Amino acid sequence: MEAILTDCVQNSLRHFMFRNAIFLCERLCAEFPSEVNLQLLAACYLQNNQAYSAYHILKGTQTAQSRYLFAVSCFHMDLLNEAETALCPANEPGGEIPNGAAGHYLLGLIYRYTDRTKSAIHHFRLALSIDPLLWAAYEELCVLGAAEEATVVFGEAAALCIQKQYSHHGVTSPNLHTSNEDYNLVSSRNFGSEDVSPRQLKHTQGNNLRDIPGNYHGAAGLSGAASQPQNGGPSNMPFYNTPSPMASQLSGVAPPPLCRNVQPNGPNLNTVNTDGSPRSVVNSTIQAPRRKFVDEGKLRKISGRLFSDSGPRRSTRLAGDAGANTNANTTAVAGNGTNSSSKYLGSSKLSSVALRSVTVRKGQSWANENIEEGIRNEAFDDSRANMTTTSSSFPSGDVKSLDQDRATVPIGGVVISSSKIISGASEVLGLLRTLGEGYRLSCLYRCQDALDTYLKLPHKHYNTSWVLSQVGKAHFELVDYLEADRTFSLARRMSPYSLEGMDIYSTVLYHLKEDMKLSYLAQELISTDRLAPQSWCAMGNCYSLQKDHETALKNFQRAVQLNLRFAYAHTLCGHEYVALEDFENGIKSYQNALRIDSRHYNSWYGLGMIFLRQEKFEFSEHHFGMAFQINPRSSVIMSYLGTAMHALKRSEDAIKIMDRAILADRKNPLPMYQKANILMSLEKFDDALKVLEALKEYAPRESSVYALMGKIYKRRNMHEKAMLHFGIALDLKPSAADVATIKAAIEKLHVPDELEDNL
Amino acid sequence: MATESSESEEEGKITGGNQHLIVEDDLREMGKKAAWSVSSCKTGNGVSSLRDDNLETYWQSDGAQPHLVNIQFQKKVKLQLVVLYVDFKLDESYTPSKICIRAGDGFHNLKEIKTVELVKPTGWVYLSLSGNDPRETFVNTFMLQIAVLSNHLNGRDTHVRQIKVYGPQLNPIPHQPFQFTSREFITYSTVR
Prior knowledge:
The complex is a heterodimer of chains A (759) and B (192).
Chain A: H1 2-14, H2 18-31, H3 35-47, H4 51-58, H5 64-76, H6 80-87, H7 100-113, H8 117-130, H9 135-143, H10 150-153, H11 156-165, H12 172-190, H13 196-219, H14 223-226, H15 233-236, H16 247-251, H17 266-275, H18 289-338, H19 340-362, H20 367-382, H21 385-406, H22 416-443, H23 447-455, H24 459-462, H25 465-477, H26 481-494, H27 502-512, H28 515-528, H29 533-545, H30 549-562, H31 567-579, H32 583-596, H33 601-613, H34 617-630, H35 635-647, H36 651-664, H37 670-681, H38 685-698, H39 703-715, H40 719-731, H41 736-747
Helix pairs in contact in A: 1-2, 1-3, 2-3, 3-4, 3-5, 4-5, 5-6, 6-7, 7-8, 8-9, 9-22, 11-22, 12-19, 12-20, 12-21, 12-22, 13-17, 13-18, 13-19, 13-21, 17-19, 18-19, 18-21, 18-22, 19-21, 19-22, 20-21, 22-23, 23-25, 25-26, 25-27, 26-27, 27-28, 27-29, 28-29, 29-30, 30-31, 31-32, 31-33, 32-33, ...
Chain B: E1 6-7, E2 13-15, E3 27-29, E4 34-38, E5 59-60, E6 67-79, E7 81-87, H1 88-91, E8 96-104, E9 111-119, E10 122-128, E11 139-151, E12 159-160, E13 162-168, H2 183-189
Parallel strand pairs in B: 2-9
Antiparallel strand pairs in B: 1-2, 3-13, 4-6, 5-12, 6-11, 7-10, 7-13, 8-9, 8-11
């Protein structure tokens, strides 16, 4: 009976019939009270959003799984202390964390929300080392600003780890071993274990190159290209931006990975192009060309120079080892370099190629390949370590790929399963590598790099809502609101139900003052999900745009209520409080936001603004400085930092920062204006006028520019010019207060300056 | 229903009143930062009824004329507009008739800036504080006093249902001499 009931319960859970599951499970627990059954019941409760029930039934249990479930329920009920003691009992400091990676991740979250950042980082890293595909842990690390490069995290070690997880594929074990060995070889040969990622990168690169050649090889006789060192071929493609030497060949052709124009190299290329995904053609097991592609990108970025060497190496090696095939491959690769093929390689090809290589490498089941690999490895060894690794892989890979291209049957039939795992793992890792690197860069606010990284993704993945919203977010941080608008609307078209990043989209529309679009967005979001904080943030932005700050504040408070841990809602509340001049509450809101996410530079900026208004200039400068540290590329923050410094009488520093801000973003007129202001107060009127003249070019219809110029002319007693500029300023319809000020200034134009101290 | 508010040429007589309160975007209500007091009031109809955004509740004075509403700020503020809600149909002899607005640093040096006569007002009545000179758009002051000098039908006490005081919007960018008007400037001027 127990077995039947258990089976029923699990079946119900699988089919999402929670009430049924709970009922049956309660019967099960009543009849056969045991901890396992209790865990099952708790799982039912948790699925049905009844964390409190799970909490009560699991209180006091000691087995690992029970403790984990108990911690989950505590976390949902916001009882972080209890959750922590459950996962990590105080009297057992060396105790095992239940459920491995998941437990570490949960513990990391708890530490993060209780402000113990170092422990949080430690646990997230542990979680990742146990389960390298735990993306959420990597995401948290990025948010905390402590993530290592994605290539390291999602690198070879990770692949090995995954392999081990699936190591029940007995047959494949030898192959696996070989693959492992391959990796090991490579590692030991080239660099030490630490260099896994670069190595891997190289491998991938090599692989990519290899794959590409393979592909080409199979498809078309890309013999011509063979000779060309395809160093960067595949890798180059994706990295059209990165100047990796490898890319030499491909760089020419490397358009953004998304473009699949790789044509020229014959069918292989074409095929690759078409699906952008790993050249399935070539490699049955290649699933994620992207991955490779990504790796390539990473590799590129990380070890561009390596590639350069590898490039030629590869080609030579290819030529040497693979003979015709390899050559063909190389040619193919080379061809890629020259043709668009490289491009395609870049995008999908690379991934496919990479995959192939990976598979090849990994799936050393193929005897020949092993041998070749061995040979290759040696050969490669002499060449750059990286190169060798890749090269070795390449040859093998190529060979394999070639086989694959032609042969429909994968060589390593037996090992397919294991090699499939390996290749599958590699593909996934490759994909995660790009995504992870992109996310990490965007959390570090190196937005241009992040954008480049994301562009390396294959079309299929790029056009998903998560990636598009990340890209949109990156554009937003670069203050490129138009581009962000475009990207976000594309994201909405892709998946209209997704709310991720929509709060940022609403802010973009707020900045662009598109009230129609913004209200439409808000309505849509609310109708999609009334309980999501992003919808209420959008609604609040809508009201704020119409200057109805009180209602906006109510909406943002609702968003906060829905999710206390949504930092941006707190920041927006703070902005509204400031607009309503309620500085105390504004400070509180910003500090709440910072408690949740101390790298939320908007809150630091908000605090700086409040202190600037309250004339507490040291505080203001400190806060702007913190914001600047987090996001050193924002010209807006730099200009405010300069204003604060100027108020502290450190005008030289202020001017320096303004210049930096001007350089950072040519389109931003504000730093120039501020600089002119500072110069004017330093009485360097001519410099100020020069700056303002330049500014007139950027923003010809800005009344304050003319007003300021008028003021400066007035100070220099050039009354006609002052009059002219004041007149223009008035024509440009300034605000009522400014109209009064300007008109007053005009009236007093002929009064000597000492008498009037107003302007 | 909204009726036109008109101002006749002689001595600022105002008739009618708007049913809806409509102010321009570049004005903001400044009353929240002020201390409000009245010269006298009946229990239950105190000064809070003037600021509760409820047109049903009203302030009723309870003493000799003139009845005063004092609005004191902590620092000098620019004020541009005073809006009162009074209704002859509801309040009849309690409706204010002659209103004088004074400004100054404190009780000792208030100076009259505007006097109006209301004739059967029914709604929001707008009293602009600006002078004719563009330089005098605002009144920069610590204190404002609204004095009800006489009522309709010679009533002794007065009812006022709501009072709002408006001044110019804050410059969203602190420490700027002028406000920004063009989109390029405004887009880059804040981080949100």
